[in-house]
Write a structure and sequence with these properties.
- With 442 residues, this protein is α/β, with parallel strands linked by helices.
- It contains 14 helices and 18 strands.
- Helix 3 (48-69) runs antiparallel to helix 4 (79-92) and helix 11 (322-330) packs parallel to helix 12.
- The longest helix has 22 residues, at 48-69.
- The two termini are 33 Å apart.
Length: 442
């Protein structure tokens, strides 16, 4: 998923414009990946009056700053409602904690995408250069069966495969209802993708009133076993070094085809004695012409009965790189009825959504898997700006990226062969989407 982090020059320029516009000096400088400073320290200076003024200064800049970048900031929530929400949060500054103010900012920013198709606009505080937050040392996945630990650092490795039932005594139903309004989105799949990352941040849990100071208490279960564990958090920089800057993917597994090469932009393999060509396309990057020609040759090999294009890990990239790839699959040799299949999932987002929209419009491809997290036409090409006092970095869409038509208002492209990954399938290392294609009989 492309959630851009600020460059130092861009952040400084946007900050300068914001400060001039507000006619008020800032109390802290924005951070950047090259010089990330703990923004929590900047967010809690003394005396208390400076802290209140600082948060109010940020909130005065928040909505105008987004409006300066976004081509249609009010597409999901009116400007008046955004201004009212920011003003109400500003009024709470004297009595609210810094964590409550952080959550309040996330809530205002998420209002922009409340009606969908704008997941690029968000305050993704786990990125470098934003408000200082930490993370629990887990990776989570939102299965139909619940929120499950899919990876963990020592000493919590034994929790892999366990479901989280409560957080600090609060049911997951209650916790999810509290977190959902602060999550940016294109659609429901975006929310399902992002919620686990928000759940791992103690500052957000405290700001929502779910957790207090000290370790976060998790109650977990697996089959008939139950346990409760107090868990301490770790620095976000260390977490990102382990889980990746996005931390939103299933763990790689060299023995499971669709999880074996997540870091490769494009690769393919012949299956079933050459009758099936499996192509995994993980990023929409500009590819050398030689790579495109090699794939074309593989697609034209004799004896291929099915071509499977797997984009369930493709979080986007360069929009200009979409069409050269689409053309390979529009070729009549490849685009034959019941011949071309595309697997999508909750990590299919941004430029990958445009890629699917164009395939859906110009080929006979059958879509398989889970609904993608991106809209076929959505706001994107995000730019960041930093709130100078708190250090919160806000990502804001700057254009409407069109898959096929600006009038395409679908929130996703629903699979014609729905194949959700269940907890049991993941534990058994099965791939329901690939099994659906293999068993497909029109």
């Amino acid at each position: 998923m492309r959630i851009p982090f600020p460059t130092r020059s861009a952040a400084l320029l946007l900050l300068l414009l914001a400060v001039i516009e507000a006619c008020a000096p800032s109390s802290a400088s924005p951070t950047s990946p090259a010089s990330a400073t703990p923004a929590a320290a900047a967010a809690s200076p003394s005396p208390a009056g400076d802290r209140v003024a600082g948060w109010r200064s940020d909130l005065a800049l928040l909505v105008p700053g987004m409006a300066r970048l976004h081509p249609a900031l009010d597409h999901g929530t009116t400007r008046a409602d955004l201004d009212t929400a920011a003003a109400a949060l500003s009024g709470r500054a004297p009595t609210a904690t810094d964590d409550e103010m952080l959550v309040g900012v996330l809530r205002v920013v998420a209002m922009v995408s409340a009606q969908g198709c704008d997941g690029h606009t968000g305050a993704y505080v786990w990125g470098d250069g934003s408000y200082h937050v930490e993370s629990l040392p887990l990776r989570l996945w939102y299965f139909d069966e619940g929120i499950v630990v899919i990876d963990a650092l020592p000493p919590y490795r034994e929790l892999i495969g366990w479901r989280i039932d409560t957080i600090n005594g609060r049911s997951m139903q209650e916790v999810l209802a509290a977190v959902e309004p602060i999550v940016p989105r294109d659609n429901e799949a975006t929310v399902r993708l992002l919620i686990p990352r928000f759940l791992l941040i103690p500052e957000i849990l405290r700001g929502l009133g779910i957790a207090g100071s000290g370790p976060v208490r998790l109650a977990l279960s697996r089959a008939a076993d139950h346990r409760e564990i107090p868990m301490t958090s770790m620095p976000m920089r260390d977490y990102n070094a382990w889980a990746g800057a996005y931390g939103l993917f299933l763990p790689s597994d060299p023995d499971v085809l669709y999880l074996s090469r997540l870091s490769d932009t494009l690769w393919w393999r012949s299956l079933e004695d050459g009758a099936v060509l499996y192509v995994q396309y993980n990023r929409v990057d500009r590819l050398p012409q030689a790579s495109l020609e090699s794939l074309r040759s593989a697609l034209h090999a004799p004896g291929i009965d099915k071509v499977i294009v797997d984009i369930r890990h493709n979080f986007g990239g360069e929009v200009s790189a979409v069409d050269p790839m689409v053309k390979l699959f529009e070729d009549p040799v490849v685009d034959r009825p019941r011949h071309l299949f595309v697997i999508t999932g909750r990590n299919t987002f941004s430029a990958a959504g445009l890629f699917l929209a164009r395939l859906d419009a110009s080929t006979s491809a059958l879509v398989v898997g889970e609904p993608m997290a991106g809209c076929p036409t959505a706001f994107g090409n995000a730019r960041p700006f930093a709130l100078p006092f708190s250090g919160i970095s806000v990502s804001v869409s700057t254009v409407l990226e069109v898959g096929v038509s600006a009038e395409d208002h679908r929130s996703t492209i629903e699979p014609e062969l729905p194949s959700r990954l269940s907890l049991d399938a993941w534990l058994k290392r099965d791939d329901p989407a690939l099994a659906s294609i293999r068993g497909y009989r029109p």
